[in-house]
Amino acid sequence: MRAATKKQSAGTSTATTGVTGATGTASASGATASEDAGDFPGAPAVNAYIATLSGARQLSPNTVRNYTSALRDFCLWAKTESGFAGDFATISRRLARDFIIEKQRTHERTTVHLHLAALRGLYRHLLRTGSVECSPFTGLHSPKLPKRLPRFLTETQMAELLGAPAKLHAAGRLDAWTRVRDTAILECLYGAGLRVSELCGLDYERVDFSTGLLRVLGKGRKERLVPVGEKAIAALQKLRLYGTGGGVKDTAAGRPSRTTGGAVFTADATRRHRLYPRAVQLLLKRHLAAAGLPSDLTPHKLRHTCATHLLDHDADLRMIQEQLGHASLSTTQIYTHVSLARLKAAHSKAHPRA
After folding, report:
1. Helix (H, G, I), strand (E, B) or coil at 92
2. pLDDT tens digit sequence for 292-345
3. Catalytic residue (one of 2, 303, 304, 309)
4. Catalytic residue among 93, 219, 238, 342
5. Which of 49, 123, 190, 335 is catalytic?
6. 157-171, 266-280, 302-316: the lowest-pLDDT one
7. What is the pLDDT of residues 202-250, one digit of tens each?
8. Which of 35, 63, 86, 232 could disulfide-link 59, Cβ–Cβ 3.0 to 4.6 Å?
9. Beta strands 23-26 and 223-227, pairing class
10. DSSP per residue, 173-197
11. How far apart are CA 45 and CA 41, in angstroms?
12. H or E element: which one contains 226?
């Protein structure tokens, strides 16, 4: 087994597919505190709070963007419903409750949870700064989220997916460099259970080829060491040495190699632009199609697959928690339910008394 033991960030992006496969470039600035900070009531207070998320708390660009959008949504709704002009101390508990009720009627429960989390966080910030005396959202209950087991691939399906870049290359639909890069991407997503943002942010100086460890920058910019496995390390080594004579031979003149430093995964063989999450999503879809697998699977599902296969092969739950970078063991425990569900299904299918 090759397993070793969270939309694209804001900014301009392009992604293309062709002979070279999926590529993507994007502004490195990511989501900023001023994103979506248009002319809406309460914008100064919202922007001040958002600045703390992207600054001191170092939350991911996706979280910053989603919180900004949720708070802007509430402010515009409150303006329409009650004439809200920007003073958050005027928001009543009844208005807060009405907003949540309306959201529950028109949006998914996960969206309601996001809005509540953003609003509670905003009011905690306002309480600390003395802008309000109480929060109208305190005590409001979040809707119960449905329990959904993570989707994952079987080991046979995963083997098919890992072989897809070579299959496309043999058919003349993928050039040699892109085959090497895409193979390394799939091996890392599965072998290390990386988030797509962690994969795209990986630099060569964070790869220890001798020990098979990656130094990964995860959520909240927390750093962790992740074992990646021999197959993934070999794929990374081949990508690193591409064009140097130590890996896949490069016949194109002028293509630089990357032996130290710099982004591991780039948009093309010129290695000038870091690959971004949307491009990874697109190239995965291409390889899923080549392997005959559902095209709606995302890079995050390979992370689920890594964790499920580790658990199936008797890995310790705490070890899986460290591997995935989960802050709480309860997040990791969902994979025990996956394995139990598979056990029950196998029992029902095979046992004569089932």
Report:
1. coil
2. 999 889 998 998 888 888 888 877 777 777 778 777 766 666 666 656 555 556
3. 303
4. 219
5. 335
6. 302-316
7. 999 999 999 998 998 877 778 888 888 899 999 999 999 885 544 444 4
8. 63
9. unpaired
10. SS-HHHHHHHHHHHHHHHHS---HH
11. 9
12. strand 223-227
Does residue 300 have an active-site annotation?
Answer: yes
DSSP category for residue 145: P
| pLDDT score recorded for residue 342 | 56
Which tokens belong to 133? 């005396």
The answer to whether the beta carbons of residues 318 and 324 sit under 8 Å apart is: no
Does the annotation mark 242 as catalytic? no
Is 326 assigned a catalytic role? yes
Give the mean pLDDT of 242-267. Answer: 58
- 181, 195, 240, 258: which is the annotated catalytic residue? 195
Please confirm, yes or no, whether 204 is among the known catalytic residues: no
Concerning whether 141 is annotated as a catalytic residue, the answer is no
From 246, 267, 242, select the one nearest 255 (Cα to Cα). 242
- Give me the catalytic one of 79, 93, 326, 342: 326
C-alpha closest to that of 224 among 215, 233, 232: 215
217 has which bridge partners? 223
Structural domains present in the chain: 43-129 (1.10.150), 153-348 (1.10.443.10)
What is the phi/psi pair of residue 115, to 5°? -60, -45
Q: Which residue has the tokens 């919202």?
A: 46
User: Counting runs of H as helices and runs of E as strands, what totals does the chain give?
Assistant: 14, 5
Q: How far apart (Å, rounded) are the C-alpha atoms in residues 215 and 227?
A: 9
- pLDDT number for residue 346: 55
303 in catalytic set = yes
